[in-house]
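P.,

For your records, the input lines for the assembly:
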Amino acid sequence: MNQLNQLYGTSLALLTDLYQLTMAYGYWKNGLAERESVFHLFFRKNPFGGGHSVACGLATAIDFLNNFRFHADDLSYLKTLRGSDANPLFDPEFLDYLRDLNFECDIDAIPEGTTVYPHEPLARVTGPILQCQLIETPLLNILNFQTLIATKAARVCIAADGDRVVEFGLRRAQGIDGGLAASRAAFIGGSGGTSNVLAGKLYDIPVVGTHAHSWVMTFDEEQEAFDRYADAMPNNCVFLVDTYDTLEGVRKAVQTGRRLRDIGHKMLGIRLDSGDLAWLSIEARKILDEAGFVDTQIVASNDLDERLIVSLKQQGARIDTWGIGTKLVTAFDQPALGGVYKLGAIRGDNGEWQYRLKLSEQAIKISNPGILQVRRFSGSTEHRADMIYDVRSSIHLDRPVTMVDPADETRRRTFDHGDSSYDLLVPVFRRGECVYDPPSIRSIRDTVQQQLSQTPASVKRFEFPHNYPVGLEQSLHDLKSSMIREARLKP
Ligand SMILES: Nc1ncnc2c1ncn2[C@@H]1O[C@H](COP(=O)(O)OP(=O)(O)OP(=O)(O)O)[C@@H](O)[C@H]1O
Ligand SMILES: O=P(O)(O)OC[C@H]1O[C@H](OP(=O)(O)OP(=O)(O)O)[C@H](O)[C@@H]1O
Ligand SMILES: O=C(O)c1cccnc1
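Structure tokens returned:
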């Protein structure tokens, strides 16, 4: 059984906005349900004021789509829906159509863990317009959130600069799936483990845990609390030392650490959860080192995020492991990615593709027409630029290709066949069948690190990051410009 089904039962087909179903009904009524169309899912701005994002959520989307069908109880529910008067919202024959519907779209998507940028499609969905439309909302729900959290986790790990990061967010996450999906995406983005045990089981993420203040408060004396914990689990001792007086707590942990040593075990760490984490970690390190506990790690938690980590490091904090909860799993400073799903092309009555775009007052918000792919140009060590192109335009990679900056058409770059390049979108579904074998979560996590190592430092920096170049292949840019002119001339 797949992971979503394990959690939610057999059917998630109703996990969509009602307007997808009202449009589906409209397509069906108008004989357009099967009309082939192409949609692109993309976002317009990197989150957190950053210069890059990390694609995440594809395996969850595959899970969802592998089980995409309307079950009898879904249809019974839809039957109960009424229009503004007493009439049913949907004809019974439409519900029969939904009952017999087999998912048959093609999907091409950028593999999880890839660094991605504004305007490039993370996924391209091709198929009957009714089906493309029904899956818009769940695809956005899954890819927006996991991409957001994987990006946040990657930023936290960049700040931690090789130190271990663990995710403690479940208690403050946005509900049950918010917690589970965040734990998955945080691990992919680089955290080393989660406190979320169900996420550990479902997604094969290492689970980690210390103890809470309540443990210390259960006993009359802090020393007794540490000793009893050590008796119970001598091989997993990370003592939370800040319940009363933090440095006194460290000294007591040292006492218990000596008892552990006498029975052949190690005190793995102490955890700081309040106060001045820079100063306390420096002082705690001295106490531990002087007592010979040089390997005992210092874990810190308390509303941390990537900027606080940078600041604490600048202050000389001696923290080995960063426990990050609320601000990671809720993407505290930017709670949504803002990814959208736009129609790029639809077959006309004559079977020919007709390209479509959505106009906007802001040029940068005008969607890209066509059937799009992304080509990444890469130097020997770093990614150089991504070019969005139409798969039907015959760009020849044995000849120079030019891409145009959509924000300023005077800025262009030309690449020739000497530049190594590859397409980012890979086949995931063909006629509704999954043709992609998702990598293990650990291998996706490795991909993130490998991708980040090829992302220019100027793009990864937190303050005023460089814009990574993403352009439109010249003929696509020219086509888009003429379509905009034409659309603006329409009465
Ligand atoms: N040296 C530091 N520099 C910058 N921020 C810090 C430093 N030490 C701790 N912080 C952060 O300051 C914030 C507030 O900590 P503060 O000491 O006010 O409350 P607290 O320690 O949580 O208090 P309480 O005892 O109520 O838990 C937290 O997000 C914490 O991570
Ligand atoms: O600060 P976050 O980044 O969200 O990390 C999770 C927090 O959850 C716990 O606190 P809580 O007060 O809930 O319980 P406790 O008594 O175990 O400290 C833990 O001690 C962290 O402070
Ligand atoms: O194990 C921990 O230390 C932990 C778990 C959840 C939340 N905060 C801390």
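Two observations worth noting. Residues 136-160 form the longest helix (25 residues). Residues 274-278, 302-304, 308, 311-312, 315 surround adenosine-5'-triphosphate (ligand 1) (CB under 6 Å).

Regards
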